[in-house]
Hints:
Blueprint: E1 2-7, E2 13-15, E3 18-20, E4 25-27, H1 28-36, H2 45-55, E5 62-67, H3 70-80, H4 117-121, H5 125-131, H6 138-149, H7 155-168
Antiparallel strand pairs: 1-4, 1-5, 2-3
Helix pairs in contact: 6-7
Amino acid sequence: MKGFVKNKSHMWAHAMKRAVGPGQTVPLEELYNQYGKKHDLQDGREFTEWLATVKLQDTTRWEIVVEEESAEVSEELTSEVGAGPATKKVEAAQPAPQPEVVLEDGESNKPTRHFEVADVVGLTVRAARDKVPEISDLNLLKYALQEANQLSGKDTLCQMLRKRILELE
């Protein structure tokens, strides 16, 4: 399932066991892994309806955006092709995968993700265990620690950030 839940308000909100900043998004796939499997919900429409009615009832604060699969879009467009002679089939373009080249010293040319403070602060504990060891920008970690210290429920993230800062210093 592709899509996300977005905080439309201009204030931080605590929902779904995480703090979500203004304008930040949480992937639906991550929420499905956390809640959908636990509550035995079907992936897709059933899960998004459950989210809207149970977890995210305030429509002024939360927006659930579901991105359509490219196969569904191409099927809908294919069914409309027979409308007239001027219409033509449109196919979704998929980016070509870039090969990963391993260099001699063990490094790779794999594209690295550039984090911002809000990205780090918004990480769940599960995601932080994977992402924080990859971050080597000391200033980013320090700023993220300052932000996370001000939020409730971010104690474990703060511990991870402190540990990573000590490793880099």
